[in-house]
Amino acid sequence: MIRETLKSSTFLNENMKSLIIPIEKVAHVQQNNSLEHALLVLVKSGYTAIPVLDRDSKLNGVISKALILDSILGLERIELDRLHTFKVSDVMNSKLATLKMSGTFSKALALSINNPFICMTDDDGAFKGILTRSSLLVYLNQELFQKK
Ligand code: AMP
């Protein structure tokens, strides 16, 4: 009963445009940046993962602190010199969670299970910004418990 009521709620089919962090506010790196640069951006921004873009702001992948740390682990020690020799493209994950700007809340919610953020694109596939897991939770909390 509760499940049926919830499933018929209109908010599930709303698009997420108002929740998107626009491209100009998204921290990112480029494929040919060094791992050292990427690690600096990640640590300074406080984010665990950020998108990798090319010069035309096209999406190439995702780079994370975990991927970088994994790539510099030697057998017995952390090999810091690899931070200079490896590029972002050597270790990034090219699998991305993407959703069109017109995508619905329910699609975004499903994608957010395995992705801390979703890359939002226009109809031509151009990157427009990101939708974070926390913004989806804030929205859900508002719809379920704060709206009268
Ligand atoms: P949150 O749900 O707010 O914790 O955000 C989830 C993840 O999205 C963060 O851990 C970052 O990896 C990424 N993220 C959030 N905001 C930004 C931003 N402005 N630029 C780049 N990545 C971000």
Automatic annotation (TrEMBL):
It comes from Anaerobacillus isosaccharinicus. SUPFAM superfamilies: CBS-domain pair. InterPro entries: CBS_CbpB, CBS_dom, CBS_dom_sf, Diverse_CBS-Domain. Keywords: CBS domain. It comes from the Bacteria. PROSITE patterns: CBS. The keyword Protein transport does not apply. Residues 20-80 form the CBS domain. This is CBS domain-containing protein. Pfam families: CBS.
